[in-house]
Amino acid sequence: QVQLVESGGGLVQAGGSLRLSCAASGRTFSSYAMGWFRQAPGKEREFVAAISWSGGTIRYADSVKGRFAISRDSAKNAVYLQMNSLKPKDSAVYYCAADPGLPGTLADSYDYWGQGTQVTVSS
């Protein structure tokens, strides 16, 4: 069992930065791949980034490559999403999720989800 709690969302101007954090509880956290997804109003949840349990494999959506960076600190049971050069279209609720397998891009492969944190980018 893994419990996830996101934080770090907020309101930022276009071009600004935010760092999202996801605190995990559960002894098996270090064995899970972790992902970030986002969902804007009226849209489906979409993949943003994922990282393997070892940190050796990282994947990004094309829309965030070069601007976002995912990382994890297993000693702190945490995963992070550094978001730079933010755009209004990045506005959404951001969720972290845990996958017992590979760091996939499909939401259905993730077993555990946090409650989400709102990110709003103003133009």
Q: Can you describe this structure?
A:
- With 123 residues, the chain is an all-beta fold.
- The chain is built from no helices and eleven strands.
- The termini are far apart.
- Tell me the series of helices and strands, N- to C-terminal: EEEEEEEEEEE
The first-to-last residue Cα distance is 40 Å
β-strand amount: over 45%
Rg, Å, rounded = 13 Å
Q: Low-confidence stretches at least 5 residues in length (pLDDT < 50)?
A: none
Proportion in helices:
under 10%
Global geometry: globular
Sum up the structure in keywords.
single chain, mainly beta, seven-stranded mixed beta sheet, 123 residues
Secondary structure topology:
Blueprint: E1 3-7, E2 10-13, E3 18-25, E4 33-39, E5 46-51, E6 58-60, E7 68-73, E8 78-83, E9 92-99, E10 112-113, E11 117-122
Parallel strand pairs: 2-11
Antiparallel strand pairs: 1-3, 3-8, 4-5, 4-9, 5-6, 7-8, 9-10, 9-11
Could you provide a short overview of the structure?
Helices cover 0% and strands 50% of the residues. The protein is built from no helices and eleven strands.
